[in-house]
């Protein structure tokens, strides 16, 4: 017979999601000592440690984070089952929580969520923050998926037995180009005609910036940098309003190019920005997430 007590697992799940034992006890209408005791019983039954107790604070262990993934699946499916049995149908309204890297192109995010705008049965939230916060949010099931131009690679979120909690799916990649005002576009081959131009570049920690500087070194060109920023939304505004040349994916300034405010001078050889959807490895994936991830998004961005 299984040693897993689902009542104890439910209490663990609520504490892990809420993040505070005292608050979880109030929500569950049990005493803090009783709640703590039932979590200890779950740990003893499974012979694992789910939380590290640091003073009065409970911090999920790697095993606890892994268990949380399954607990979320178990109880979210239980809620769907209850709805199905009571009303004879799947929940009428699905909620999708999407985390977004704060420096990403808003045009890309808009293209990704566009099918949701026409779906009356889906409500979604977009929360922009830093990469570490996004992964932490995924681990705590605050997000169903994360959109990022950084892949969750080795060293981020390793679970038990060295298995990683995250999986990154490449959604699309976009060439990175030099863009600027139409009247400043040289008629000559780069870098001839570019030496007198000022430039708006991604920040020095950006992969795009590093690759662009490598390209410039190959052709012995040094750009006159006017400004730099890690924020794609700000890079877009500066490219639009400064009169300088900018290095960024054309999708970021798609509207400005269509309106003739900016033109694409040239794509930079072998330089791309990659867009990823990051999810937690799990047994169950919400249907709406699967539909979004299966779309040919590359075509949408053309």
Task: Tell me about this structure.
The protein folds into three domains: 6-74, Winged helix-like DNA-binding domain superfamily/Winged helix DNA-binding domain (Arc Repressor Mutant, subunit A), CATH 1.10.10.10; 90-172 and 276-300, Periplasmic binding protein-like II (D-Maltodextrin-Binding Protein, domain 2); 174-272, 3-Layer(aba) Sandwich (D-Maltodextrin-Binding Protein, domain 2), CATH 3.40.190.290. It is 40% helix and 25% strand. Mean pLDDT is 84; it is low at 157-163. It has 302 residues and is α/β, with parallel strands linked by helices. An eight-stranded mixed sheet has the order 4-3-5-10-6-9-7-8, sandwiched between helices. The protein contains eleven helices and ten strands. Strand 1 and strand 2 form a beta hairpin. 30% of the residues are buried. The termini are far apart.
Number of domains: 3
What percent of the residues sit in helical stretches (DSSP H or I)?
40-55%
User: Uncertain runs with pLDDT below 50, 5 residues or more?
Assistant: 157-163
Main-sheet strand order equals 4-3-5-10-6-9-7-8
Structural class: alpha/beta
User: What is the tally of beta strands?
Assistant: 10
Whole-number average pLDDT?
84
Q: Shape from CA axes?
A: elongated
State the major sheet.
8 strands, mixed
Q: Quick one: CATH class of the largest domain? A: Alpha Beta
Beta-strand percent range = 25-35%
Please name the fourth-level CATH homologous superfamily of the largest domain.
Periplasmic binding protein-like II
CATH-scheme architecture of the largest domain: 3-Layer(aba) Sandwich
How many angstroms separate the termini? 56 Å
Q: How big is the Rg?
A: 24 Å
CATH topology tier name of the largest domain: D-Maltodextrin-Binding Protein, domain 2
Element pattern in H and E = HHHEEHEHEHEEEHEHEHEHH
The count of helical stretches stands at 11
């Amino acid at each position: 017979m299984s040693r897993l007590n689902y009542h104890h697992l439910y209490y663990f799940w609520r504490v892990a999601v809420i993040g505070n034992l005292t608050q979880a006890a109030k929500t569950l209408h049990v005493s803090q000592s009783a709640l703590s005791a039932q979590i200890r019983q779950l740990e003893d039954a499974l012979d694992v440690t789910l939380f590290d107790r640091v003073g009065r604070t409970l911090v999920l262990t790697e095993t606890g984070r892994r268990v949380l993934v399954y607990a979320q699946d178990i109880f979210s499916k239980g809620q769907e089952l209850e709805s199905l049995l009571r009303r004879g149908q799947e929940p009428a309204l699905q909620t999708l929580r999407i985390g977004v890297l704060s420096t990403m192109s808003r045009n890309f995010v808009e293209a990704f969520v566009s099918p949701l705008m026409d779906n009356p049965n889906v409500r979604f939230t977009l929360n922009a923050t830093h990469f570490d916060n996004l992964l932490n949010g995924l681990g705590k099931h605050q997000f169903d998926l994360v959109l990022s131009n950084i892949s969750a690679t080795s060293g981020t979120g390793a679970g038990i037995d060295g298995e990683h909690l995250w999986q990154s799916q490449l959604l699309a990649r976009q060439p990175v180009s030099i863009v600027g005002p139409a009247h400043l576009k040289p008629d000559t081959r780069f870098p001839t005609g570019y030496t007198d131009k000022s430039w708006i570049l991604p920040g020095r920690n950006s992969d795009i910036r590093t690759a662009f500087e490598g390209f410039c070194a190959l052709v012995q060109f040094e750009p006159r940098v006017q400004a730099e920023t890690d924020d794609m939304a700000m890079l877009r505004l500066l490219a639009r309003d400064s009169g300088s040349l900018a290095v960024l994916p054309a999708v970021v300034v798609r509207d400005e190019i269509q309106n003739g405010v900016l033109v694409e001078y040239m794509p930079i050889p072998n330089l791309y920005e990659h867009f990823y959807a990051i999810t937690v490895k799990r047994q169950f994936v919400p249907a709406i997430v699967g539909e979004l991830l299966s779309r040919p998004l590359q075509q949408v961005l053309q």
